[in-house]
Design goal:
The protein is α/β, with parallel strands linked by helices. The chain is about 35% helix and about 25% strand. Helix 5 crosses helix 9, helix 5 packs across helix 10 and helix 15 packs across helix 16. The longest helix has 20 residues. About 5% of the residues have low confidence.
Length: about 475
């Protein structure tokens, strides 16, 4: 297990503006390290890090490694990056981001790690906010900007409690050893690294099994991929969910506690475009009525995971209720913008299950919905093509722009046009707009007042959404150009 170096160490993080790397950089600055880094563009995150004292360079150059002792990289950094090449040539110590995160987690006697194909950032944020409202003042390192904490993704405190989002995308979760783990869901994802769903499950089980600090695991029993790993875990397990686990009778199991953990349920759960509600029940005992200030059943699931952990940490049910009623989530996770009578929703999700859940939540608003999607990786489209075909059922119109390959070698026959045809084959209306910049004009023609647009993608697509909102506001005042 990697240990944090001496405070005299100068640490340089390549890709410091990434949401995961920036969280580690923020924490290292809080510990008192001298931190530098580089990224391809300026961003909100790089500006924040500069304000905290980091040296941030825009662009990559070997010259940025002067007086550097330790170089930190993520899996996204290619071996040909000039700074990484120079670091290896000079014999500098090079560590993966997850090793630094693991060292920060190991410094906390209570460390909660959240794993999952989707929802882990929101779940980790909800845990952090519940513990904050409970007066426990947790630290956190999360792959998103927390709305309840002045839009930061990281802070360290002296409470001894840390909440961390643990990325399973590249197998590096083996480097992070929390004392409590949450498994939100396990689906086939990151297929540039994994062979299939079973490979993801084996990796998660191995990482949890090799963690000597682990004392308890919380598993979403409604998710088949997560539920399947329970029998392979060697520590106490608490299950959570909205429906009864497969093979159990709710009436006969009420009030029973497993030998190793508890069962936490959300009973009579409902959600709409604005909020949700459920009755919180543990082992058949009603604890509280919970209002969740985020839309969609998927956010109820995330909040239930957080409530389950909070109960384990002896947070009172009424405190959990107060916290979840005021929980604001993460930036660009179902972030709603009003523009000239239209509603724009921005969400980072690109996995088909997440897209389906977001569109289901959006559909509760009873508005005509246009989905805008920038696909990610040939492997994802190839392996999950049938799931993508079903994901856009709740959209009246889907606009798809060219796929982002992320450096992958193309797969013959698998491209954006293929995906569009696959979705059309299930009935939805699909428009293929190869150049992302052309989408705004299509939206101006197609989307009227009282309708909504849901953007699925990354920062570049969200910048386009912001441009669309600005043009709508301008046209409302000045009229169409």
């Amino acid at each position: 297990m990697y240990a944090l170096p001496a405070l005299t160490t100068r640490i340089h993080l390549i890709g410091i503006g990434g949401i995961g790397v920036s969280g580690v950089a923020h924490a290292l600055l809080a510990k008192g390290y001298r931190v530098s880094g580089s990224d391809v563009r300026e961003s909100q995150l790089t500006l924040q890090l500069r304000e905290l004292g980091a040296i941030v360079n825009i662009g990559h150059s070997a010259d940025h490694l002067r007086e550097v002792d330790l170089v930190v990289v993520s899996t996204a950094i290619p071996e040909g990056n000039p700074e990484l090449v120079a670091a290896r040539e000079r014999g500098l110590e090079v560590r993966h981001r997850s090793e630094l995160l693991g060292a920060l987690v190991a410094a906390h006697p209570v460390a909660i790690g959240v794993i999952g194909t989707h929802g882990k950032g929101t779940t980790a944020s909800a845990i952090s906010w519940i513990l904050e409202v409970a007066g426990k003042r947790p630290g956190f390192i999360i792959g998103g900007l927390l709305e309840n904490f002045a839009k930061t993704n990281s802070r360290l405190t002296h409470s001894g409690v840390l909440v961390a989002e643990v990325d399973e995308s590249d197998g590096s979760l083996k480097n992070v050893h929390p004392t409590i783990a949450v498994v939100n869901n396990i689906e086939a994802d990151h297929l540039n690294y994994y062979e299939n769903l079973e490979h993801v499950q084996r990796t998660v089980v191995a990482a949890l099994g090799d963690n000597p600090r682990l004392t308890h695991v919380f598993v979403n029993a409604d998710d088949a991929g997560a539920r399947a790993i329970i029998s392979h875990l060697r520590v106490p397990v608490t299950t959570f969910g909205r429906t009864s686990p497969v093979g159990t009778d709710p009436a006969s199991s009420a009030g029973e506690t497993s030998e190793t953990g508890h069962e936490v349920r959300a009973v009579a759960a409902s959600a709409d475009f604005v909020q949700g509600h459920y009755t919180l029940v543990r082992d058949g005992v009603v604890l509280a009525e919970i209002d969740v200030s985020l839309p969609g059943l998927h956010n109820l699931d995330n909040s239930l995971a957080a409530a389950s952990v909070a109960l384990h940490l002896d947070v009172a049910p009424d405190v959990i209720g107060r916290a979840l009623a005021t929980f604001k989530g993460l930036e660009n996770r179902f972030t709603v913008v009003q523009a000239a009578g239209r509603i724009l929703v921005k969400d980072y999700i690109s996995h088909p299950t997440g897209i389906k859940r977001v569109l289901e939540a959006a559909a509760t608003g009873q508005r005509k919905t246009t989905a805008v999607f920038k696909p990610y990786r040939f492997t994802m489209v190839n392996y999950l093509q049938d799931d993508y075909a079903e994901a856009f059922h709740d959209a009246d119109h889907t606009i798809i722009t060219d796929l982002y390959p992320a450096g992958e070698v193309p797969i013959p026959g698998i491209d954006t046009a293929f995906l569009c045809d696959k979705i059309r084959g299930r009935g939805p209306r699909v428009t293929y707009v190869p150049l992302m910049e052309d989408i705004v004009e299509v939206l101006h023609r197609e989307v009227g007042p009282g309708e909504q647009v849901v953007f699925f993608g990354g920062d570049d697509l969200f910048r386009l959404a912001d441009r669309y909102a600005a043009e709508l506001a301008h046209r409302a005042v000045m009229g169409p150009a």
